[in-house]
Amino acid sequence: MPTFHVEMFEGRSVEQKRAFVKAVTEAAVNTIGCTAESVEIIITDIKRENWSTAGTLWSDPRPE
To answer: What is the pTM of this model?
Structure first.
């Protein structure tokens, strides 16, 4: 059973998440030959203040 752990910034709607998990499930079924019922997807919403790239929090202003 494939299990996907997805971390993303919070703020996406339930409708967006629903579309995302449907697309990932379909991709798994079509590429690795599993059943849709075996696909597990865990979404973790992360606050921008808890994510950093290159030493800068995503909640801080980004240089333009």
So the answer is: 0.86
pLDDT digits (tens, 9 = 90+) for 38-64: 999 999 999 999 999 999 999 999 877
Residue 59 lies in a domain: no
Which listed residue (1, 2, 10, 62) is catalytic? Answer: 2
Q: What is the domain extent for residue 21?
A: 12-52
Q: Active-site residue 63, yes or no?
A: no
Q: Transcribe the chain into DSSP letters.
A: --EEEEEEES---HHHHHHHHHHHHHHHHHHH---GGG-EEEEEEE-GGG-EETTEETTSPPP-
